[in-house]
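Re: that backbone. C-alpha cells:
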C-alpha cells in the first residue's frame, strides 16, 4: 500500500533501530521538523547519491536512493551555533515509488513501508558482534544518542553496528537492502574481519 510522506535526503544512510543527530538550517526542513513534532508523525530519510541518475534525469529533484528509512524525531535542542539540533530514530525500511517537489521546495514521495523489524534472537555465533557494538557505545558522541539497546535482538545489534561502524555509505546502503538477518550478520562479521586485517574466509 502506498503512503505519501515527506522525504529528507541525507548524505548518510539511516538504519532502522538506530539514531543519528542532525542540524536543521533550511527553512523547508525547519517547517518539516516543526510539523513532525506537532503532529507526532515521521518522514522518510533517503540517501543522497551524488553523481547518480536515480532521479531519472530531472533537474528539479536530487538523486536519491530508492530504499530509505522511516524516521521519527526523538530529541531536539537549540545548538550553540543557533541552529536546531534533532536526533532521529529509524523505525522501518521504505521503498520510494514516485517523487515530486512541493511549491515550498519540500520533497515528497509515495512510498511502500516495510513492517518494522520484529525481535529475533541473536545467534550465538555472532556474540562477537555484540562486543564490538558495546565498545562503540562507549564513545561519548555515541552514548549521547541514547540508543534503544537490546543485545539479545539480532536486528538491533546488526542495524546499530551497520550504523556506527566507519563504513562507506554505499556499503551501508547495501546492508540496508538485506532482507535476511543471517545474511546481514554474516556480512558485518566479514567486514569486521577485513577491517581488522583478518582473512574473511
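Recovered sequence:
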Amino acid at each position: 500500500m502506498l503512503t505519501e510522506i515527506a522525504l529528507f535526503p541525507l548524505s548518510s544512510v539511516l538504519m532502522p533501530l538506530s539514531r543519528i543527530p542532525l542540524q536543521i538550517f533550511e527553512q523547508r526542513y525547519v517547517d518539516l521538523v516543526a510539523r513532525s513534532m506537532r503532529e507526532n508523525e515521521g518522514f522518510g530519510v533517503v540517501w543522497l547519491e551524488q553523481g547518480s541518475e536515480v532521479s531519472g534525469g530531472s533537474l528539479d529533484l536530487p538523486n536519491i536512493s530508492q530504499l530509505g528509512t522511516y524516521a521519527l524525531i526523538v530529541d531536539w535542542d537549540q545548538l550553540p551555533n543557533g541552529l536546531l539540533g534533532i536526533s532521529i530514530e529509524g523505525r522501518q525500511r521504505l521503498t520510494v515509488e514516485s517523487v515530486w517537489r512541493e511549491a515550498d521546495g519540500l520533497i515528497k514521495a509515495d512510498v511502500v513501508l516495510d513492517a518494522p523489524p520484529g525481535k529475533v534472537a541473536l545467534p550465538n555465533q555472532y556474540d562477537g558482534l555484540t562486543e564490538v557494538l558495546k565498545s562503540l557505545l562507549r564513545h561519548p558522541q555515541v552514548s549521547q544518542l541514547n540508543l534503544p539497546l537490546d543485545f539479545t535482538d539480532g536486528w538491533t545489534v546488526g542495524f546499530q553496528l551497520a550504523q556506527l561502524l566507519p563504513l562507506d555509505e554505499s556499503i551501508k546502503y547495501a546492508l540496508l537492502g538485506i532482507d535476511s538477518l543471517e545474511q546481514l550478520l554474516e556480512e558485518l562479521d566479514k567486514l569486521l574481519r577485513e577491517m581488522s586485517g583478518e582473512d574473511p574466509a
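The radius of gyration is 17 Å. The helical segments are 27-39, 127-137, 140-143, 154-164, 169-176, 181-195.
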